[in-house]
Amino acid sequence: MDNNYQIVKRVSALIALSDQEFADFFPGELARELQSLLPDARRVRLPLADPADWTRLWQESSPELLISAWQTPSLNSSLSPEHLHGLRYVCHLAGTVRRLIPRELIANGLVVTNWGDSIAPTVAECALMLILMALRRASYWAVAMHRDGKWKDNGTMTESLIGRRVGLHGFGGIARSLVPMLRPFTNQIAAYSPHVPDAVFAQYDVRRVTTLQELFANSDVVVELAAATPANYHIVTESLLRAMPEGGVFVNVARGSVVDEAALIRVAREGRLQIALDVFETEPLPPDSPLRGLPNVTLLPHLGGPTRDRRRDSGALALRNIRAWLRGEPLEAVVTLEVYDRAT
Amino acid sequence: MDNNYQIVKRVSALIALSDQEFADFFPGELARELQSLLPDARRVRLPLADPADWTRLWQESSPELLISAWQTPSLNSSLSPEHLHGLRYVCHLAGTVRRLIPRELIANGLVVTNWGDSIAPTVAECALMLILMALRRASYWAVAMHRDGKWKDNGTMTESLIGRRVGLHGFGGIARSLVPMLRPFTNQIAAYSPHVPDAVFAQYDVRRVTTLQELFANSDVVVELAAATPANYHIVTESLLRAMPEGGVFVNVARGSVVDEAALIRVAREGRLQIALDVFETEPLPPDSPLRGLPNVTLLPHLGGPTRDRRRDSGALALRNIRAWLRGEPLEAVVTLEVYDRAT
What are the chain A neighbours of B280 within 8 Å (beta carbons)? Predict the structure, then answer.
């Protein structure tokens, strides 16, 4: 760990987290490092007993730096521009900040960072698990063994990832974490991502495909990793899903909106694909969703990442960013207006 | 593929498999290679319409070589020593041959091979999947999402393999296949296997531990890979399981008899460990087994390996062995009397 930092100047900081969030994001040594970086920081333990305390806190402390996560109250409702006047940087420990931060604050120069790619390894790990589960029918067997008293028979189908053709839709941080996890099983890895330079494909030794049609038609396993931009809304169509080979595996650990879920349900019901989903168009997934109960569908309740034990990776990124901000150096994982607008 | 073989002499061979077994073990090119190696082989399609045909077949063909798998009738019941007089080599495509071959045939010089370590990669893959599922609580969520209409809440626990200490009980073929699959997640890999030389540990960069107590006490994840020898019967005791750290993961893809299952059930019921099992003391697992229904237990019906699509690896090993046998060269995966006696 790099402890070679200098406090450029003392800043007023507000750490607005629940006790659980603080413990998960800044365990042990990370909490001590945060204390060293921001000796004057005020720590608020959420949730607040009285929501009006949120306004009072801002009046009292008028922080330049806010450290926030899921439990942090919005900067929108109860705070006036006057309260927020001194705020220069929000170091958000989770993903989207749309609930927390009004767009105009960023437009007016507020610096915001989030967990960025620090969660990529755990989401990639989730994708690998879902691939293996779909091939092995592990979700079917979890239900059949626990609830239905079953055992295998001569017709039981099991498949391996060894030697399979894997297609990645998207080639950002998660895909780049996933590639080395796939390597012990297969070298047949392709990706579709129009804006990523050829040099990155070469660096990861991943074959570039130039159309989604080609990706779906020539992959035994497709992993959905595309960003939930307006351009990607329902980009995975029924026609693409039907282009996959018989017995193919479709995994989504990106966002539900990327897939035409009604089409996915139609294809899932036919049983010719194995489908594994961590994300859905409507979350929480409605109790009566037709996806629930299908034997060829693996379901998780949006647990991709970060796992509880790896929230520390976001905490470590936050410490790097706070140190850089104190020194006036560039930050990682900055939530620009472009990032803000495409977040979901 | 090595097609540089010579038929030393024509031998009479009997291929006694079901159509499904033949297609799985010798798909495409492998079937053509088998045909080239054994042009005079007689192929019997199992199951036989009349069990008496088995005796008649041996009278007619008196094979020197038998290619067998799960569906092949026993050499025990309906065949006399006279029928088996010419038999010199049984190339068995599956694991244990105890059901198929009387011990005295091997004692009297019959050469037998089985699938050996050709299945190791798929069993290792199953172990990795079970580790990830246990950490992520994926079996719990499979049941909860499909049958109980649930979604996550603030208390939902998820964990990652990243940076975890993994302990392997056993360091044979499966463990050696598993190590590279674990590397993208962790370098903290230890193993306990008293008879494996230090050089092998060094080759795989795995730390040797000298007692099981040390392995269980200092691993976040323990993978059971020990052979089902008499010495290993119930070697995993309640005391070892209780030595694991809180929240630890115990995976068994070896054999049920290696673990004191009554003790495992007591520990499982307390919920402090995550447990993932592909094998059991009694198989099929009884419908009323207390393991069924526990939320911290992942269950599979002995599907470790090989998966259906990788039975071809056993077929490829069989072709190598048949070619070597025709040339009088040494064989792989030989079922010696020692192997025969410890098989389960």
Answer: none
